[in-house]
């Protein structure tokens, strides 16, 4: 009964599917797109946007030390949902 509601790219917890299937799928998708051009200035801008961003945690009146993040998309920005969608759209 759950099967019709699962994403077709859900490889976990299904009979005869596993990590190997996910890796094969991703490799095939990656190889199929290697010959497509990428706009270098756009990639450079996104890399600059995503790297070296300071972040901290505030809980009531306490604030943590700042750390620099070089991974992930900043939470709460307009661009973050778009970048996530851009990253995951091609998986379909």
Short overview:
This protein has 92 residues and is of the alpha+beta class. It contains 3 helices and 4 strands.
What does this entry look like structurally?
The structure is a single chain. This protein has 92 residues and is of the alpha+beta class. It has 2 domains: 1-36, no CATH class; 39-92, no CATH class. 39% of the residues lie in helices and 11% in strands. It contains 3 helices and 4 strands. The protein has a two-stranded antiparallel sheet with strand order 1-4.
Summary keywords:
alpha+beta; RT_dom; 3 helices; two-stranded antiparallel ribbon; Reverse transcriptase domain-containing protein; two-stranded antiparallel sheet; 92 residues
List the helices and strands and how they pair.
Layout: H1 19-32, H2 40-50, E1 53-55, E2 58-59, E3 62-63, E4 67-69, H3 79-89
Antiparallel strand pairs: 1-4, 2-3
Domain Reverse transcriptase: 1-92
Protein name: Reverse transcriptase domain-containing protein
InterPro entries: RT_dom
């Amino acid at each position: 009964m759950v099967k019709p509601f699962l994403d077709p790219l859900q490889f976990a917890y299904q009979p005869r599917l596993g990590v190997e299937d996910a890796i094969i799928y991703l490799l095939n998708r990656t190889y199929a797109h290697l010959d497509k051009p990428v706009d270098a200035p756009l990639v450079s801008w996104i890399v600059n946007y995503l790297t070296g961003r300071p972040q901290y945690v505030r809980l009531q009146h306490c604030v943590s030390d700042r750390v620099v993040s070089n991974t992930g998309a900043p939470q709460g920005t307009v661009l973050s949902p778009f970048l996530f969608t851009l990253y995951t759209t091609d998986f379909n």
